[in-house]
Amino acid sequence: MKIGAIEAGGTKFVCAVSDEQLTIVAREQIPTTTPAETMGAVISFFQKNPVDAMGIGSFGPIDVAVNSATYGYITATPKVGWRDYDFLGTMKKAFDIPYVWTTDVNVAAYGELKLGAAQGLKSCVYLTVGTGIGGGAVINGQLLHGFGHPEMGHMLIRHDPADTYQGHCPFHADCLEGLAAGPALEQRYQRKAQTLAGDDPAWTLEANYLAQACVDLTVTLSPEMIIFGGGVMKQQQLFPLIRQQFAQQLAGYVPTPAIDDYIVPVQLGDNAGITGCLLLAQEQLR
């Protein structure tokens, strides 16, 4: 029995095959170019490495409503060539197997819940802060979907009065992603985020915005853990700053788990998404 996984990102696709114990036996990284080129390489990989079920976590927005005419599509993405692309349908034409279809951040949240930082819990939120900001959630062991899927990076937050940067989101300007994603840091300070000193005041402002997101998620979803991943969050000095500002902003209104165990870094690193895909596909087979 073989299980397949696709973590489809805006920069690269990661394809993997595992055995029933989730030991990866084949893996390939494919650049995200055009659908014809990228998906051709993906299909070729799985033709060489056949699987019995597959989990797909895709960049979005995507359509996750099973009864929708465009279920399985990537929808209003700014990624050139991928708008209104029938991702799941393309895979189903190539391989007649069971699929799980959700977002790249949802699969990462699921991986962290089952085998990562949130192991043993029933709920968590995973936020990735990099080129964009995305969030996925598992509540009572189930991926969070509604009429669509969460777009946590676009929650509206309070713009710090001292921050003159207007935000870079083309839809909302100063939403969370518009103020706190990697490109916002780069445009605000005219340099790459990773070149900023660890004690630069830039990180205090960044922590303010990310702490606001944690407060919003806490009072809305009551997760047992909030997990941060993505390139920006490799700045470890952010975590104590976020926790401190979160405590101030929440102001003791609701109890939370111990703060150091509540707002934490991703444990599975770059493997969180692939792990979640494999786990979901495995459950689909069962």
TrEMBL record:
Gene3D superfamilies listed in its UniProt record: 3.30.420.40
Catalysis performed (reactions): D-fructose + ATP = D-fructose 6-phosphate + ADP + H(+)
GO terms of molecular function: ATP binding; fructokinase activity; metal ion binding
Cofactor dependence: Mg(2+)
Keywords of this entry: ATP-binding, Carbohydrate metabolism, Kinase, Magnesium, Metal-binding, Nucleotide-binding, Transferase, Zinc
InterPro entries xrefs: ATPase_NBD, Carb_Metab_Reg_Kinase/Isom, ROK, ROK_cs
PROSITE patterns associated with the record: ROK (PS01125)
Pfam families in the cross-refs: ROK
EC number: 2.7.1.4
Family: Belongs to the ROK (NagC/XylR) family.
Protein name: Fructokinase
Organism: Loigolactobacillus coryniformis subsp. coryniformis CECT 5711
